[in-house]
Design the sequence.
């Protein structure tokens, strides 16, 4: 029996062609996803994007209409949830209310058939070990109602780890916690992941959480997998406008591409494109891709409608003629008044073709 | 600071009640409720026991030990012993299905479960008689195989089941809906079988609500008159339950015996009430669902 803190042999998770419909509306379209062994992968998307559905299909809590799920070499598509040996952590903990912390953690071992059930002393030892791992030693005989949210979620994780799962799946694990606890638990989860080495998938709608915690991020939108990549990848090289706008502030400009140059309102922008591309496109700019300029200068104009301090920078909100707003990051010393009309110079951005 | 300001303000009482009715309104309302309760509930209950003991303890015991009374008690216990467990199983399955699965016709099922509450028991008894009587739709074929349903134990049990089947389900449906499926799903991911999950996770979460429903179901099963009256045929010593036996004794002007037997039902009611209050007091949160977490 492997020590819970000892990195076991991690397996990969492969999802191929998974499609799921709810009452005619597709929740997942033909999803292909490969989670590498020992990796911590975030399924990121807005609510209704299908991320929880995908996680539940991997766990076996839901059945896909089409497609397959593999754990390593094992085709788990037709395995019932009990046989998949996944560790699942629910958003609202789902601890057994009427059982003590120790009984909650031991549950997965207690329900095994007699032949596979470890002896009582062994179960007790493992429970103590896991309590130590989640830093809750001394809480054995407490009941879930006597614990804080963060403590409950730690018990839930210990319970999931007790059965030596093939993979660990977490559904918005920090969604029900307050901001401070959430931050602490993130670092702690990262630490646990490094110690156990389990292939882990967690669902979140919080970009910061995904980018800070995950080795790779899979971005979902309306049942489509938009992009899978490292945090750097999805931030710096978003493959779709959705990924660009979902992972942070971005202003959109209409652009023309001609002779290998990108033009916004007829003025060239220093963004490289292939010579052969031609036609209309959208240019998305982060707040730091824009710079205030004198009126009439730059690519665009607008009115300053808000100024906020953001650490060592200032963020100004600029209202455009059509009423939409965009954000620009400026150094602290820049003096701008509310209601002042300014020009905007585009320094950089991401080009997406309009088809 | 607060001492000073409170000293300057007039005392609360002098300004009259702010958020509640005046004292005399409250007293009057409570008094009316109490008088009503006394006249219509407590007084009749007292009368039952006074009449039952009119000829002393000896007369009371004699009435209960009489052969027909004993048969009625046995029959009532038998009927309850069959009907209540069946309704327990039915109620559990119905509320499980309604709370944990999504399916077409769910709201129709919920409405149907309430049907016995809205149909007069006499009418439901008559329907069963039409179906299972000697000339009934199915009754005749049962008769052909020598199985007697109407005017016999099976008929009485059927009528009782019909009248009492909402109790367990009605108690459990809101409770199970409230609790959702997350704990069961957690147990499944940990490798527990469906049956094991039910025994170790679902049942502990609903046990007090279940007990409460069974209690009410049992009280009604033993006290049911209308539907059973139609189905039983009033055969003395054979198909008379306690309520039917009481009626017969009363119609024969045998008041002491009638009230003596009736006092058994009154005791059952008091016992049920006591247990019910205890459950509400001790496990109120678990009965209402959710709040205990």
Sequence:
């Amino acid at each position: 029996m492997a020590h819970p803190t000892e990195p076991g042999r991690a397996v990969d998770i492969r999802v191929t062609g998974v499609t799921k419909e709810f009452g005619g509306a597709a929740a997942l379209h033909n999803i292909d996803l490969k989670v590498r062994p020992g990796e911590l992968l975030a399924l990121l998307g807005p609510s209704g994007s299908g991320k929880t559905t995908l996680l539940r299909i991997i766990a076996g809590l839901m059945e896909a209409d089409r497609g397959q799920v593999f754990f390593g070499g094992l085709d788990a598509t037709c395995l019932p949830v009990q046989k998949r040996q996944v560790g699942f952590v629910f958003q609202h903990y789902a601890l057994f209310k009427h059982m003590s912390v120790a009984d909650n953690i031991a549950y997965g071992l207690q329900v095994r058939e007699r032949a596979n059930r470890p002896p009582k002393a062994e179960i007790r030892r493992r429970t103590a070990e896991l309590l130590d791992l989640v830093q809750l030693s001394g809480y054995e005989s407490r009941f879930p109602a006597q614990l804080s949210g963060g403590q409950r979620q730690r018990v839930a994780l210990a319970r999931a780890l007790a059965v030596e799962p093939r993979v660990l799946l977490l559904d918005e694990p920090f969604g029900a916690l307050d901001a401070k606890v959430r931050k602490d638990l993130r670092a702690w989860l990262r630490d646990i992941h490094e110690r156990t080495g389990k292939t882990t998938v967690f669902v979140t709608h919080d970009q910061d959480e995904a980018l800070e915690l995950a080795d790779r991020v899979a971005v979902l939108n309306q049942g489509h997998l938009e992009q899978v990549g490292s945090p750097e990848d999805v931030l710096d090289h978003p493959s779709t406008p959705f990924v660009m706008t979902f992972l942070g502030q971005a202003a959109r400009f209409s652009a023309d591409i001609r002779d290998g140059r990108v033009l916004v309102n007829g003025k060239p922008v220093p963004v490289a494109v292939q010579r052969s591309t031609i036609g209309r496109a959208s240019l998305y700019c982060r707040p730091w891709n824009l710079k205030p300029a004198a009126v009439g200068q730059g690519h665009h104009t607008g009115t300053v409608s808000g100024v906020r301090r953001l650490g060592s920078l200032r963020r100004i909100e600029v209202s455009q003629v059509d009423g939409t707003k965009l954000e620009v990051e400026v150094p602290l010393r820049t003096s701008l008044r509310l209601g002042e009309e300014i020009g905007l110079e585009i320094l950089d951005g991401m080009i997406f073709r309009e088809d | 600071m607060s001492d000073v300001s409170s000293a300057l303000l007039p005392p609360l009482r002098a300004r009259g009640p702010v958020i509640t009715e005046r004292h005399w309104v409250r007293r009057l309302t409570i008094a009316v409720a109490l008088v009503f309760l006394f006249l219509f509930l407590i007084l009749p209950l007292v009368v039952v026991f006074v009449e039952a003991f009119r000829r002393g303890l000896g007369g009371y015991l004699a009435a209960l030990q009489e052969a027909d009374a004993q048969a009625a008690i046995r029959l009532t216990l038998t009927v309850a012993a069959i009907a209540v467990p069946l309704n327990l199983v039915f109620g559990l399955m119905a509320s499980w299905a309604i709370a944990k699965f999504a399916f077409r016709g769910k709201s129709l099922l919920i409405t149907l479960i309430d049907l016995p509450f809205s149909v007069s028991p006499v009418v439901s008894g008559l329907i069963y008689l039409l179906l299972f009587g000697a000339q009934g739709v199915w009754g005749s074929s049962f008769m052909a195989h020598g199985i007697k349903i109407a005017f016999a134990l099976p008929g009485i049990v059927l009528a009782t089941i019909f009248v009492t089947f909402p109790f367990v389900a009605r108690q459990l449906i809101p409770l199970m809906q409230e609790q959702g499926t997350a704990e069961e799903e957690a147990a499944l991911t940990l490798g527990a079988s469906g049956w094991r999950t039910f025994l170790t996770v679902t049942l502990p979460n609903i046990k007090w609500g279940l007990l409460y429903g069974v209690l009410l179901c049992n009280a009604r099963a033993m006290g049911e008159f209308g539907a059973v009256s139609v189905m039983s045929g009033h055969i003395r010593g054979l198909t008379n339950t306690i309520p039917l036996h009481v009626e017969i004794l009363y119609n024969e002007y045998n008041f002491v015996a009638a009230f003596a037997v009736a006092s058994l039902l009154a005791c059952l009611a008091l016992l049920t009430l006591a247990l019910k209050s205890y459950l509400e007091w001790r496990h109120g949160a678990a009965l209402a669902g959710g709040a205990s977490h």
About this structure: Chain B has a mean pLDDT of 87. Residues 22-52 of chain B form one domain.
